[in-house]
Design a protein that fits this description.
Strand content: 5-15%
Radius of gyration: 17 Å
Strand order of the largest sheet: 2-1-3-4-5-6
Largest sheet: 6 strands, parallel
Oligomer: single chain
Helix content: 40-55%
Order of helices and strands: EHEHEHHEHEHEHHHHH
Number of helices: 11
Length: about 210
């Protein structure tokens, strides 16, 4: 059996998708929000984590990096050792920022959120064996992701800022000082050619970075 942890913040969507996946005889599926995912991953030790990359929580302190650190022997082979669960990222073609974050966390699989459930099942089985799976519909998104001038940390700060978080809230969420967050926001504003924080968010949203 392939143990799958499905991470999505929308309850209705994740339960419906978990039900569909659970009909496969070789898949044992558990679903969770991003808030609960890291703790569940520790106890379940899944082979594959299927993750919704459009959530700003994916780049937070309890996001991809912590989530993928718990797996078993099959996950070890998939993610290069250390008992790491293999990551399969669900992404939108028009949002290269989340694709970039998934790539930097060494996700093995990348699937468009417009793909069929059959494609998702295929992707899970392949990444569970340590094979890479890339949806061709995301090809252009990867090209755009390579051109993003922001670092992974800057993208995380920007994603939280775009959700309306204050400097203090971002600092608390990412375990940074307020001054460090302000420095990141200054760098983001400069790199995006924006006039201020609000303008940087507008530009980045238009480019699909957050």
């Amino acid at each position: 059996m392939i143990r799958v942890l499905l991470v999505h913040d929308t309850y209705l969507l994740r339960t419906a998708l978990a039900f569909l996946l659970g009909r496969e005889p070789d898949l044992e599926v558990t679903s969770a929000s991003w808030q609960r995912a890291a703790d569940l991953s520790r106890s379940l030790r899944p082979h594959v984590c299927v993750v919704d990359m459009d959530s700003p929580e994916a780049g937070g302190p309890r996001g991809l990096r912590e989530l993928s650190g718990h797996g078993d022997a099959r996950g070890e082979a998939a993610a290069g050792g250390g008992g790491r669960a293999a990551l399969l990222a669900l992404a939108s073609a028009g949002r290269p920022g989340p694709l970039r974050r998934a790539y930097e966390e060494k996700a093995l699989g990348y699937l468009s959120k417009n793909a069929s459930p059959d494609r998702l099942v295929e992707g899970i089985r392949l990444v569970a064996k340590g094979e890479r799976y890339i949806d061709e519909a995301l090809g252009f998104g990867f090209l755009e992701a390579a051109e993003i001038p922001l670092t992974r940390r800057e993208l995380s700060v920007l994603s939280l800022a775009a959700e309306g978080a204050s400097v203090g809230e971002i600092a608390h969420s990412l375990h940074l000082s307020n001054g460090t967050v302000r420095n990141y926001m200054a760098a983001i504003t400069r790199k995006t050619g924006a006039r201020n924080r609000v303008d940087a968010i507008r530009i980045s949203r238009g480019a699909g970075w957050v």
